[in-house]
Design goal:
Length: about 325
């Protein structure tokens, strides 16, 4: 061995299991030495989000735009960032859209949204724990209106795991009315969301599909209620899927799905009449001190939902106490 030459990395020296690193933007989570996801809490957005989120084939299973400029991707809806939560009507404030959504717009409706643009701001990491089998992150976030008035807060518990080759993310969000009463309006653009890669979108006609637990397919899935919803399609030559499960203890289970053929997958229990004209208005007011919880599991898997055993995965998830 020549002096100064680095020793080769032996198989036994390769990192195994989960590791986590604090960065200037938030947290980076790795599994077996490879990127699993980044939790971004500081940057050019008005909300925290996960991006990129890597799947079991080693490919990113979230669209890169607007965080990265990839010419082959759809460059619409810049507020669709990886995996995130937003709501267009929190005491009138819009935390779904963001400044990039209204930059240079000539649409009067979007201009109006810009005038009530709110934000969800990361306050602190209440807990961060990591071992070989999982990472747990508990964060606290404050909601503000356009004038900087606090509206409410939430506590998010993320758990990251790998099981049977699947990449799994549990997200439990508890909203708290800590700044007085808060109204969560019946809204189309609201909920816990994933934006899938462009090539997986149904509209690209490259094999992308949407399927719910109730058998609704593609555009017919929009606005319907189901215990799970899957977006799947080919990615770099392999069939993969992003499936979101809705736990029975989650608000308004089974949730309606704001799922779009261009690549959006959103569990939206806040949109009742806005997703179904025959449903009653679903606006809910949390009185000061009240709480409300959303609970979901995101499974990034190989194959179509049936091959990936999604129905059995949901049965097991539904039995877990939350």
């Amino acid at each position: 061995m020549i002096a100064g030459m680095a020793m080769p990395l032996l198989a036994a020296d390769k990192p195994t299991g989960f590791t986590m690193e604090k960065t200037s933007e938030g947290l980076t989570i790795n599994h077996d030495g490879k990127l699993f996801t980044k939790y971004v809490v500081k940057g050019d957005s008005n909300k925290p989000y996960l991006w990129p989120v890597m799947g079991p084939t080693g490919q990113a299973m979230t669209r890169a735009y607007p965080m990265a400029d990839i010419k082959t991707e759809q460059q619409d809806h810049p507020h669709h960032r990886g995996i995130w939560f937003g709501h267009e009507g929190v005491n009138g404030a819009d935390t779904w859209h963001e400044p990039k959504s209204v930059e240079g717009t000539k649409n009067e409706g979007m201009k109006a949204r810009g005038l009530r643009m709110g934000s969800t701001q990361h306050r602190e990491f209440k807990e961060t724990s990591v071992d070989a089998k999982q990472v747990v992150i508990v964060s606290v976030n404050d909601y503000f209106d356009v004038k900087g008035k606090k509206l409410m807060e939430d506590e998010r518990r993320y758990t990251f795991r790998v099981e049977n080759g699947n990449h799994i993310i549990d997200c439990d969000i508890e909203f708290k009315a800590t700044a007085g009463d808060v109204s969560l309006e019946d809204a189309k653009d609201a909920g816990f969301s994933v934006r899938v890669p462009t090539v997986m979108s149904v509209d690209k006609k490259m094999g992308g599909k949407i399927l719910t637990s109730e058998g609704k397919v593609d555009k017919d899935a929009w606005g319907t209620r189901a215990t799970w919803c899957s977006y799947y399609g080919p990615l770099e030559g392999e069939m993969v899927g992003v499936t979101m499960l809705n736990h029975p203890s989650s608000f308004r289970h089974p949730t309606p799905w704001h799922v779009r053929t261009y690549g959006l997958l959103t569990a939206n229990p806040f949109g009742t009449k806005n997703l179904d004209k025959n449903a009653p208005d679903g606006t809910i007011t949390l009185k000061s001190g009240d709480k409300l919880a959303l609970r979901h599991r995101v499974i990034l898997h190989k194959g179509e939902p049936k091959a990936a055993g999604i129905e059995a995965a949901y049965t097991a998830y539904a039995k877990e106490k939350k």
